[in-house]
Amino acid sequence: MAEDTEDRPFDAVESARRVSRLALTGSLGTLGADGHPFTSLVTTATSISGKPVLLLSQLAVHTKNLERDPRASLLLVGPGGEGGDPLAGARVTVLGRVAVDDDPRLRQRFLSRHPEARGYADFKDFAFYRMTVESAHLVAGFGRIVGIPATDLLVEASEALADGEAGAVEHMNDDHADAIQLYATQLLGLAEGPWRLTGLDPLGLDLICDSTPARLDFPAAVDGPGSLRQMLVALAGEARGAAA
User: Fold this and answer.
1) Could you tell me the pTM of the whole model?
2) Which domain covers residue 144, as residue numbers?
3) Which of residues 127, 154, 181 is at a domain's end?
4) Own/partner pairs for 6-12, CB < 8 Å, 24+ apart?
5) Strands laid side by side in the 204-209 sheet
6) Are the CB atoms for 118 and 126 separated by under 8 Å?
7) What's the pLDDT tens digit per position in 216-239?
8) Using CB atoms within 10 A of its CB, is residue 242 exposed (0-12), middle (13-18) or buried (19+)?
9) Tens digit of pLDDT for each residue in 181-210?
């Protein structure tokens, strides 16, 4: 079952969630001491619930701005526009407040998505930051401009699922790389490559191949390790059936 978002009815919340999960980089807007907005390029990930996660240096201007005023915006752009129109893809601006968060689960999710950051993540001037989302603004094409409340952009994840995520991702990457390959090629219609999981949440899986991200949505939400295991097995069976 290849991913076919073109034929599905437009769903603003689904589109905003997808963009925020797929984006590898974003434009971070902070407020300077004189009140002027300051925008910079940052690498991004999300918490299991969908809150943006950043790895920032205390030496950077944007970090100094956040220490003075935590209000920020983060522009995330989804795939699209590769054919020539840079405005063809969906994009979402997330508004909220950014603060240091040393939750090891956030570190794991970020570094799984950006393994190159392991080389400097432990430098004394670097720390992981999480945005507390207050609202979002989606632009997904002509006539598709929608304000998204934080309660819609984010998803609730059980502590059991959050605590078990890192182990599940590692297990799949180490022991079931063949299934991940089938998820990408048979269920999403993507080209073969060294696909691996970078994270999971109640609504789907995040994958990456080199610098290309992908998202596999679950047909139904999962609420813990048991239902996750059943879902992964069922998806693998569907993928193998499609490949036969």
Assistant:
1) 0.92
2) 5-154
3) 154
4) 10/140, 10/144, 12/138, 12/140, 12/144, 12/146, 12/148
5) 196-201, 204-209, 212-217
6) no
7) 999 999 999 999 999 999 999 999
8) middle
9) 999 999 999 999 999 999 999 999 999 999
